[in-house]
Amino acid sequence: MSLAEQTRWLDATAQAELVATGEVSPRELAEAAVERIEADDPSLNSVNLRWFDQSLDDANGVPDGPFRGVPFLLKDLECHVEGQPMSNGNVALAKLLPRSTFDTELVTRYRRAGLVFLGRTTSPEFGSLPVTESAAWGATRNPWDLDRTPGGSSGGSAAAVAKGMVPIAHGSDGGGSIRIPASCCGLFGFKPSQGRISMAPNRAETIVAVDHVLTRTVRDSALALDFSHGAGVGDVIRATPPTRPYIGEVGADPGRMRIGLMDHNPLGKPLPRELLEAVHKAAALLESLGHQVEPAFPAALDDTSTRVHYGIIRSPIMSLTIDKIAEQIGRPLEPGEVETFNMAQAEAGRTISAVDLTAAMAATDRYRRDVQQWWADGWDLLLTPTLSELPLPIGTCDPDPDPDDHWAALFRAGDFVPFTPPFNTTGQPAVNLPTHWTSDDLPVGVQLVAAYGREDHLLRVSSQVEAAQPWAHRTPNP
Question: How far apart are CA 446 and CA 388, in angstroms?
Fold first, then answer.
């Protein structure tokens, strides 16, 4: 058996151990990952920018960090690597492929950990949708069912990890964009607290998005959080530092947790049988592990007006995004260089008054406090479905819809993901646990949410569930 197949299903921790013991070199691990990508990605379209030659040359010079030699992919969205291109899923940038002039703080930390950067994974344009389909790069497909989406916006990373091309990949989560593809692809997906991982130097922690990774095991995610967390220069939100390394929470006794169960769709639509089965089985498993689980959830989660407020805040950000690209390329963007859905958001953003924006921000602040109060009142975790539907068929969320309905993709996306965006607004940590598969072998995840700053609670319970009902052995058919 080739090294590519011997190491395909080893997690990042196990691959790093091979390097640490001298059984393989970082270059050999990188070569094995490249072999898998070249063999498997044509059917998935998950790795859009490849730096293989340079990566192989640089592999043996990587630092002696905790993941020395582990092959790694970075999402093609707002994560700069000096000297390498990034398109943000946009047609104009995909044509020009401008090269970054700096590393983001997170990339610097990834370098110190010893990760070997092989390239970038596909993202929808600007990460706007919970599917990974763009005019720039086409559709990325789910390795469990090629006719379905791997989710988004970190869908390329999820597909690559689920197929075993790499054991770990970068993702970002602004409305569920780590948890959604983790659910679609049967992975562990962890969104840390707002301010846990620095956005320096080009973004602010006040936005709803946070960065982390997609993995097949809890321990990989915990160890990655250990070397990536912490404030950077000028950070305006700084989560309280942990009392011990996050890897120490894996396998630690969580005690008896008080867990609320939300098993209805806040949009008032019925949930499919498979999703209800998944969340109820997860509740039963948690009870069997000694936790108290009962129907309870923050009442504010049923307030759907927050979607309107989010849209008011998001639209001017899209306006600035479009202007920034125009400045970068030295000319206005032409028709077809921004997808219809995103251009509609940008145009709407230019009509929003300062008063309306301030009112939306104030409403969001009230919502944040109302939701977090539930944890302050004595609850430890909330259990929900991760999604409201099974992974969508490719093409369901068309970013270039009928010209008479520019917002179709937005509303269809909102129907698909009512459970994940609230916790970007509140800044709380949340995970997807891959605890269920349908009779057709499609992954169905469940979401656990902790109080702000309590990543330790999530890691303890997640590793407890992983030990009781392992999932890493479940892999897509060839």
Answer: 10
